[in-house]
Design brief:
Two copies of one chain form a homodimer.
Chain A: H1 6-24, H2 31-37, H3 45-48, H4 52-73, H5 81-98, H6 100-115, H7 120-143, E1 149-151, H8 155-176, H9 179-195, E2 197-199
Antiparallel strand pairs in A: 1-2
Helix pairs in contact in A: 1-2, 1-4, 1-6, 4-6, 4-7, 5-6, 5-9, 6-7, 7-8, 8-9
Chain A binds a DNA duplex (18 and 18 nucleotides) through residues 1-4, 6, 30-32, 40-47, 51-52.
Chain lengths: 200, 200
DNA sequence: GTCTATAGGAAGATAGAC
DNA sequence: GTCTATCTTCCTATAGAC
């Protein structure tokens, strides 16, 4: 492994860490397992990262980014509110079904970070980011086209409802393993949200 | 510690384990920390439990029982559907706000068990139990009094929606720390469920 | 920068005296 | 049954040759 830029090495280690965590869980992601996955010697770890905690902070940032990119890229586009809402929900759900391991990991990481004194701040910011994303999603649903819509509940409340419902349905699927059953519950959520949008 | 019945010791160790886990997280609940909390010598652990995994199985059973007892004891009683639903939700929510640590622990334990090969079965059964409890709750709402009600969606779908929504709102509160905001989202759920009950 | 070798500690589990 | 002392293993982190 001759003279790789340290930044490149950092990236590879973060990717390797995510791979190990998705496959075997956060607790299995020891420095040894991570460097083995990245095919590097153990010693390389500590001249790329000051500590394991520093790596974990970066892992959380990357994973959070993944989820948000997908969610927000699908809000745009034409059509009526119901269609766009349905499309956004379906895109999110497709990602959950395609990559359940990555979603399971986000929950594990949030919990892990919340317990780790040095990472508690990261965990809080992570959830704020999700709430902000869902707020933008809701505002994008009403703001972008000619229809003048008003939600029958305040946007902050709706954003929390959507965040909670998505989390809950995802967790249901991850734990029960039945995509059809969880998908039906998600449709109930989507219909509810559509009903909360009253034409002004 | 003279001649305590082994069964008594087992109970004390389970309680101590829960105390440590609520305070410091599942990963902090080492055999050493648990026996220290129970004020017992380390050696006593392994003549009460064959392994740490065996203890964890019992911890999960006890914690699951706690949550279900509270939830189901509040379904009964008189009043219209909306009132009883509201009462049940409020009782659940009160427990979450009073004992956030215990609820946080249920999520941590589910995840931990799902990763542990010997406990994966326990994790699946745990979620089945929650679903069954919410199904009973929904049936109790319609079945017990003179009103003849019919849900506008199938009961299994509704049960999953309720399970997911409660989980999601609880998680929102645990991560955001704002009981008022999460409570408002929960009310949205309660109103939605009430609307799904059409008089037959 | 890169690697091998190892320090230093904490984990689960057990041996064996009482 | 009860407890102390210890085994074995695995962890994060570092020292130091190249």
């Amino acid at each position: 492994m001759n003279r790789i830029a340290a930044s490149e090495r950092r990236e590879r280690l973060v990717d390797a860490a995510i791979a190990v965590m998705v496959r075997d869980g956060v607790s299995a992601a020891t420095t040894r397992a991570i460097v083995a996955e990245a095919d590097m010697p153990l010693g390389s770890f500590h001249y790329c990262f000051r500590s394991k905690e520093e790596l974990l902070g970066e892992v959380i940032a990357v994973i959070t980014g993944h989820t948000l990119e997908r969610a927000l890229s699908e809000v745009a586009g034409g059509g009526a509110l119901e269609e766009r809402l349905c499309r956004a929900m379906r895109a999110y759900w497709q990602h959950v079904v395609d990559e359940p391991g990555e979603h399971r990991l986000t929950y594990e990481l949030t919990q892990y970070a919340a317990r780790q004194p040095g990472l508690a701040v990261v965990a809080e910011r992570q959830y704020e980011t999700y709430l902000a994303a869902n707020t933008r999603l809701i505002e994008a649903l009403t703001g972008d086209d000619g229809e003048r819509l008003e939600w029958s509940v305040p946007v902050p409340v709706l954003a929390r409802y959507v965040t909670a419902a998505l989390d809950g349905v995802t967790l249901l699927y991850l734990n029960e393993g039945n995509a059809t059953a969880a998908g039906e519950a998600l449709e109930l959520v989507a219909r509810h949200v559509a009903e909360l949008a009253g034409r002004a």
